[in-house]
Amino acid sequence: MKEQKIYNSKGKVGDFGENMRWSPIFGIPLIVALLSLVLLKLFPLKSFNSTPQNSLRLFTVEELAPYNGSDPSLPIFLGIIGSVFDVSKGKSHYGVGGGYNHFAGRDASRAFVSGNFTGDGLTDSLRDLSSAEVKSIVDWRDFYFRTYTFVGNLVGRYYDSEGNPRKYLKGVEAKAARGAQLMEKQKNEEAKLPSCNSRWSQEEGSAVWCDDGYPRLVKRPTEIALTGKMSKRCACFKEEDLGQPGLEVYQGCDHFAKTCRL
């Protein structure tokens, strides 16, 4: 067997060891990789969270109460569906004398749709509310997540002493999802029937009218209807449809009037 000659980088015959000498250029990536492994061991990566879990706080009802704006040395906290938010930047609204001060220092979720800001109305119970009403409250909670700082959870109806969600919270979320489906369905149904035009002025008050048809009040389905005025809407009906059951003529308005003053 003939001896195989090995040529080095200069084109000259050299030994095997000379040609396999370590190149600093190829060694750099390996060094970087080794350093990366060492750094990962010393400083492991953590998943991103805008609010670190260990900075969140669990409140009892008694612990949340002092954060109602009455003590200027404390921030103002508000609870909704068991989530607690720092609303201090909205002090003009949530502080003492503000229009929303009744929400501060407590979880008064129900009042967001009931409008009852006194006594038993300031409760976190959503019992007997429609799915649409529950959805509205969940929407309010999402607004606070977007607008204010989430600081923790309230132990009680929605979270246990370890901060874990209770079944009641899961039930509220499911009911809100059902409400969203129903409202979307109702929206599609109402799109088939034109709504009345409306206007208001200080001199003439309110008025509704139809360009094509006659204004009538029609009830929304119970599950869709929110409290008060949201339980009915004004729609325009053609003359041949005015005999349908459940249509209501505005008080003081002629049966065939196309404009009704309220």
In helices, the fraction of residues equals 25-40%
Question: How confident is the prediction overall: mean pLDDT?
Answer: 81
The Rg value, from CA coordinates, equals: 33 Å
- Main beta-sheet annotation: 4 strands, mixed
Oligomer: single chain
Q: How far is the first residue's CA from the last residue's CA?
A: 113 Å
Q: Count of DSSP helices?
A: 7
Shape by Cα distribution = elongated
Share of residues in strands: 15-25%
What's this entry about, in short?
The chain is an alpha+beta fold. Helix content is about 30%, strand content about 20%. The protein has seven helices and twelve strands.
Please explain how this structure is put together.
It is built from 7 helices and 12 strands. It starts with 5 loop residues before the first strand and ends with a strand. It has a 4-stranded mixed beta sheet. The N terminus is likely disordered. It is elongated and about 65 Å long. The protein has 262 residues and is of the alpha+beta class.
